Model the fold of this input.
Amino acid sequence: MKLKLITSVFLALWLSSCSVPKSDLKPDDSSVRNTQNGQVIGGFNDKTHQWLGIQYGAIPNSEFRWKKAKAPDNWEGIKESLNFGASCAQRGSLINTTKRREWGDIVGSENCLYLNIWAPQMNPEELSDSSPLPVMVWIHGGSNVSGNADFYDPSELAYQHNLIVVTINYRLGPFGWFSHPSIKELSVDAMNASGNYGNIDTIQSLEWVQSNIVNFGGDPSNITIFGESAGGYNVAALLSSPIAEGLFHKAIIQSGGIKAGDITHSESYLKDNLPWKNYTSRELVNQLLIERDYAQTREEALSLQIDMNDESINDLLRSSSTKEIYKSFQEAKISTNEMLRPFPDGIVLDQNGILSSLKNGLSSNIPIILGTNRDENKLFLIENPRLVRSFLGLPRIKNLDRWNSVVSHRSNTWKLLAVDRPARELSLMGRKNVFAYRFDWDDEPRKFGVNLSDLLGAAHAFEIPFVMGNFEEDTLTKYILSRKNMEEVKELSNAMMSYWAEFAYTGAPGKGRKGNQIEWRSWDEISPENPKYIIFDSKTDRGIRMTSNAITMESLFASIEKDDNIDFKMKCEMVDTAIKYDDVKNESWLYQFANGLCSDLDPDSEWRHFWYDELDKPY
Done:
């Protein structure tokens, strides 16, 4: 059994706990609501009303590729909103299709801009008499190349805390992030030339929410955006977007980041493998020329593309099918980082990037929560044959001490860049509305001879079921949880939902909605002893608590240098990965680290060949 399949199995088991929402409901007459395009009717899922598959933007044909979507068409009568809309075009995987035969195939549609709404059950009379409720808009993850809104069920969060939750689809892969000079040259306005079409979609969805959510009981003046992984990146991009100003009022970034994409690289001709960069649009066109039999080799395609004018390249790109574009994208991104990051184009995203724009005062009035999971990288390292082997079809950690060390250093690097550094710098500028967390829950049982607490722990995405509040006990208790700890799991989940909801209501998580939790205070950089962030864990493992143990660049490298569980070559690789993949320091730092510990090593022959040729990604 291949390690990647093992990874898929474990991830599928965990994410099944997100409880895919019910979509087989009957129309509920009390759920008829007006939208700007017509009336809709939803269903009742025993806890909340829900409306699925409401279109907020239309991409009817390829002429709307790499543009802001057109407004949806109006309709007559009452439209049933009982089923999810089409997913956005992507490669089939466990997080976008339950049909395993489609894994690896290109699935979904370009016309995919749909949203879904969960709200407390109210008839029209109750709706008119009630005060408007806070709204939370969820942006899903998936490296900006995969994922669907229909994978998440926030009904428990909406039900327990009397608020409205919206989930959205947005364009992915080459349809969501694509910066080619010919497209830019022929675009009629700066927004369409930005390359950030997935981010434009998130903005358009918020415009829809602003115009329509009051009819569902929501308060358009109290909107919280929240997202995980790539969704967290897109939340950060909205914080740094001048054209998103006023569309939301609070933001939560779960396991995301603030590193922007590289426009220059994305518009270049790529010759060398660069695992830490996005694919390039010109190489996609080269592959498309080969795909359509205009060229046989990259060299022929390169020569042909150089001689083509902007109109010819534009015609090629818009006359190609969805599958032709996506197949070319898959070929063009070989040995490059799969995560697609928003471009600092100066229109959709501030040209100075995310952190610089925030330090310059953009979104200074918007409270922010930043957080990561303690063992983020376990989910990605589980398929790394240097650290994990397969035995009788199950993963086995080769060396537990080395495994824990590599996970810790890589996850701490993530935390430094996504949480501690931005929170520290914003706090030093006087901001008191930045809150941070770390998710530590790791009480998985031992199954089939595998200690899941060691193998998975508090891995990437594992906080989502706790935030959503939905646990499919039959599946979850059988594989990932234990019936013995379900009470503690639900207790932790209830606490986290309570903090998230209080933040949505007031802009500060405080002591939760009931006021009975530990106070979650904002990041305070005045002195090292002051609390910085909250830790979420079960009572068995010290519970929920504030801590001042923050990470700095100096402490990160010092922990690597002092780690006795890895040899000096592995230490050097950890440093090199932080440099090359995460841009923590400049390249010369590798040879300055630990008084020249790495000065006699050649990174290309010692470890980078694993990244380039064998793994296609670093640790």
